[in-house]
Amino acid sequence: MPDNERSLTPTPAAVDAGLDIAAAVTSLVPWLGGPVSNVLSGFVRDRKFRRVNETLASLAEELRSFRSEASEAYVKTEVFEDLLEQTLRRVADERNEEKRGLYRDFLRGAIKSPGAPYDEQLRFLQTLESVQPDHIRILRAMLQPPDPNPGFAGSPGQTLAKRLSGIPADRLAELSRELTDMRLADLSSYNTMMTGRGAEELAGRITPYGRRFLEFLTDQ
User: Fold this and answer.
1) Residue 29 covered by a domain
2) Distance CA 41, CA 192 (A)
3) 139 and 95 in one domain?
4) Which of 116, 171, 174, 190 has the most other CB atoms within 10 Å of its CB?
């Protein structure tokens, strides 16, 4: 059996832990407990199981006061259960805590947007595999209002460097190229000199898909 499949084979201890997690989720969000219980039987004990546990606990806490009949009906469907399973398998394999937070945000978006097309949700999930937290920071920085007093000239890269001073210049340029490759933004003119006002207007460089993707991850 491949290592990945073997690692996701539940042991009796893991099954007991899964029941405990499902019970905890059910106590906070009763209508989410059923699908969580169904999916958890496929997950592992120890490190990977803890990743799933932490993500679900955080999701349940965020949804604790959320109420929606449409969402409650949606989470009982096979479509949501498939999406939940695929997402939690990625969570189990993800070492970066911040990236696991993005997967939690994805599940929250799926639950709060029960009418969203499944194919697009699946595309979001596939995109999320390639996305790093710094990619999201860049997209959010691009949405910041432009400086009302820009200089005479500048480039999109210079604007991003100003808004994201904590990211090294080389990495910022690389991440921007990746966003363009993923069709989340068009930063092909990253180093192109233009008017200061043009360099500051970055929101329009986020693609329609990029906007939908970012909105899906943002709590409403």
Assistant:
1) yes
2) 52
3) no
4) 190
The domain total for the chain is 2
Domain extent, residue 92, equals: 3-101
The series of mean pLDDT values per 10 residues for the chain, 220 residues long, is: 40 57 79 76 67 92 91 92 94 94 95 89 94 96 92 94 95 97 96 95 97 87
Report which of 123, 163, 169 is spatially closest to residue 139, judged by C-alpha positions. Answer: 163
Asked if 13 and 45 count as a contact pair (C-beta separation under 8 A), the reply is yes
- Distance from first CA to last CA of the chain, Å, rounded? 42
Amino acid at 80: F
SS3 of 36-91: HHHHHCCCCCHHHHHHHHHHHHHHHHHCCCCCCHHHHHHCCCHHHHHHHHHHHHHH
For residue 58, which amino acid is it? Answer: S
